[in-house]
Amino acid sequence: MHNSEGVVSAMSQAVDAGQAAEELARQLLHPYLGFVLFFCSASYDLKALGDALQQCFGTVRVVGCTSAGEITPQGYGRNCVTAVGFNHAHFSIATELIDQVEHFSLIDAQHLVERLVGGCRSNTLAPIKGNTFALTLLDGLSSREEMVLAALSAALGDIPHFGGSAGDDNFLTHTHVYFNGAFHSGAAVVVLVNTWLDFEVFTTHHILPRAEKLVVTGADSPSRRVYELNAEPAAEEYARHIGVAVADLDHRTFAAHPLAVRIHDQYYVRAIQQVHADLSLSFYCAVENGIVLTVMKPGPILPNLESLFDGLHSRLGDLLLTLGCDCFLRRLELEDAGDLEQIGSFLQAKRVMGFNTYGEQFNGMHINQTFTGVAIARGRR
């Protein structure tokens, strides 16, 4: 993409961290570069990559996170790093690190948002109200998303907010966010973006309800672990309802047979992370005793995405960039169906950049199995 448009996209498939950083810098650096956002495979030597990015980009602020797959200028990627550079004539961007998410409070959130707003205002690009959105990248294994998002949402007020939980290529061991030259765990990065360009924060999913209901009758909410569904061992009851053996429960089964909680007329997926030897289930989102989970089934992804982008185009005009947080369970579903290349080509045509996440965020809610993000228009000036 041309620099004058406001954003430049880049990617590197280099295995060596230093080479990957150099390739990104060659594609992104220009005199008006004000900010870089990247998403990378956890397979990199993260210490080496962090140092190399800081060296290659110098005083330009760079933030990012590890992923469970990348969305690149060429569609879906794997074991690579992808990035977007933002022109400071189009975007005023401020960033903050929450270095210990478990201790983050509403007071902390209010002070953090005040600093972010002050940082964006210093460039006098556009009024904050109506011209600003927030992006949050969270450690995807911290189990603190709901708490952090509730505080941030209250502090952000009317500012729309989206984000994603960092991944680690589906290993579920260590996820990281990147800030100020280093990768951090147990942390989050908050990015406030002020722009005179039109934009829209959105979320969508392709999951449809079935008739079956599962009531959480035994759960440890802080650890997001469910021991009983319908007063039966959780894994056995779930497996019985979806018609598989407990031994066959894995990521792909969870992606094909999600559970969701209904709020008003909307369903919000509560994705299962793993099954344990004691037949309990760990979830990516908050689960509590007494909630009713509906067994869901995936519908077709492409028509859902086509409808989303048709609507965005009709409201915003031609799109400059869409930053997308795409649940890794959706990607597993596409891989199983053999549709990854088709959907990747669609995202490429729509100028989507982003990553596969361990959870998505939309205006203070932590959700799963969605495609959530922000679409930014080319602008009519």
Automatic annotation (TrEMBL):
Annotated FIST domain residues: 31-233
Superkingdom per UniProt: Bacteria
Pfam families per record: FIST, FIST_C
SMART domains: FIST, FIST_C
Classification via InterPro entries: FIST_C, FIST_domain_N
Sequence ranges assigned to domain FIST C-domain in this UniProt record: 234-364
Name the record gives this protein: FIST C-terminal domain-containing protein
Organism: Pseudomonas lactucae
